[in-house]
Input
Amino acid sequence: MSFPKDFLWGGATAANQYEGGYREGGRGLATSDVYTGGALNVARQITYVLPDGTTGKMDQHDEMPANAKGYIDENLYYPSHVATDFYHHYKEDIALFAEMGFNCFRLSLSWSRIFPNGNDSEPNEAGLQFYEDVFDELLKYNIQPVVSINHFDVPMHLADEYDAWSDRRMIDWYTNYTNVLFTRFKDKVKYWMTFNEINLLNGYPLLGTHKTDDQTRYQAMHHMFLASAQAVINGKKINPDFQIGMMCAYILTYPETCNPEDVQKNIDEERNLKYFFSDVQVRGYYPSYKLKEFERNGVVIKKEQGDDEILRQGVVDYIGFSYYNSGVTSVNNRELTDGNVSKVVPNKYLSQSEWGWPIDPKGMRISLNLLWDRYQIPLFVVENGLGAVDSVEADGSINDDYRIEYLADHIQEMKNAIELDGVDLFGYTPWGCIDLVSAGTGEMKKRYGFIYVDLDDKGQGSLKRSKKKSFYWYKKVIATNGDDLSNEE
Output
């Protein structure tokens, strides 16, 4: 069999999409808490209040008014507040993960559950105890926690009062947060990731910054690079056996034609979309192509003495990445389709999901090879999956054969990358192993999980957990270490 005998099989979730309990156990507010639901082609909204008391809404990718603060309108529905309620169902859910045979589970921590304001002098013990209880429950079943330290939000206090990652003090506040985690959980967690999909972060909900211009974003990113590197340095001192990785959204792109202009544009897109971020965190320095881009665009990164050395010392141990789909780049203007975080040229050779994402299993193998050839450090597929509408039959069954087909095809390409190409891949945690709120649209009907959660787009439902057909299929996949991918009873 091509998968290593100690290969990590599991699933992945995020606190702001799954955990719930947003005001319980002393948790403070986060930027994700002012994020309303949305729908396909209907942008999620962020609600805010101005100093004069006027409230407003903005699209999720717009700039926040400079003096605005996050605001919760009690008349609106915010999916993250309950999400699918891991906070109250964690024992039940972990038992289901164990039944599937997970030997790892990727979850993220809510920074504001541990430091309610983000920069408190002391951590919130109730928050730490909740995560300790979760880790102990996982370890009871021999499931290794894989922890994303920060996943798509920021404590709201830091965003409202300091403009979050645009302020250099965030490095110290994040470092204090990670030091507390590393010390408290040094014997319970081995695998860490510093930031989720760092290449996608911008604006108020994800970076906590009111502006979205390049100068603001890249200065904030510099602070995040330093915070990540310092976490690696400190973590290794606390426990040398820690494996601390980065995490990026890997959106493979192909040039539309062999026209050299298309090829060059594709190189530029791949650098801009993803490689810049992994280059810094894996190699430990800013690549020359980005420095030239900064020169052309007037972006000036403010550094302090010692920054470059911290980046060099704090390189990551592995690359965690998400892979859902590929895209096409072209110098010609034409109708575009949804490509996860960007609009891309449709690929005539591929089918699409219900949400318009191209389905490209072969792209998984290509992506693994490109990353392995470029960096030669271990890889971990920490997100992969198919968002789809699932129907509950009269007998309660949920026959998601489309999801089984998607995942089987992608796992086969992972096997090919290991067996045929020699790629060092050590784990796979498909996204949304249990149904959760979509990050992109705020919907529940866009489901990824092996486990169905009774909840609709308006937050109505019993939260009852049910096993889909894919639950039993994935259980077989894990039991055979990826050898049997067939969709047979």
